[in-house]
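for the recovery benchmark. C-alpha cells below, seq after
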C-alpha cells in the first residue's frame, strides 16, 4: 500500500534542498498519499509504472496546441518521455525545467507559471 512507497516517492518528487526547507509541504503530500485506498493503490501504482506506451499510442490524435512540461530531474516523467510525447503531438512544445523533479509546480511555481503564460500568450494571439 501507500506506506511502502511514500518516502521513496517524496525523494523522487522533490529535491533534497526543497525537502529540507519545506517539511510542512512534504508532510501534507505524505498525508495525501497515505489517504489512498490500500487495496486500490497497488493497482494504480502498477498502472502508472506501465502506462507509457498506451498513452503515447493515443496522444498523436491531439489536434490543438500542446505544452508538455517536466522537470530536468524527474525520473518518472523524464525529459526523454516529454520529448517523445511532444514529438508525437502536432503543434506541441516540450519544456524541460532545469533543476526540478516531479513536483516542479510546488518547488518553483514561478518557473512553471512563466512557461504557461508564455505558451498561452503565443497560442492566444
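predicted aa per position
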Amino acid at each position: 500500500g501507500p506506506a511502502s512507497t511514500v518516502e521513496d516517492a517524496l525523494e523522487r518528487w522533490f529535491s533534497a534542498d526543497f525537502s529540507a526547507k519545506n517539511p510542512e509541504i512534504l508532510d501534507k503530500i505524505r498525508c495525501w498519499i497515505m489517504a489512498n485506498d490500500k487495496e486500490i493503490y497497488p493497482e494504480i501504482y502498477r498502472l502508472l509504472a506501465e502506462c507509457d506506451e498506451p498513452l503515447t499510442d493515443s496522444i498523436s490524435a491531439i489536434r490543438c496546441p500542446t505544452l508538455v512540461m517536466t522537470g530536468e530531474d524527474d525520473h518518472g516523467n523524464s525529459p526523454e518521455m516529454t520529448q517523445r510525447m511532444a514529438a508525437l503531438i502536432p503543434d506541441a512544445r516540450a519544456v524541460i525545467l532545469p533543476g526540478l523533479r516531479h513536483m516542479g509546480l510546488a518547488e518553483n511555481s514561478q518557473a512553471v507559471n512563466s512557461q504557461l503564460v508564455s505558451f498561452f500568450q503565443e497560442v492566444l494571439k
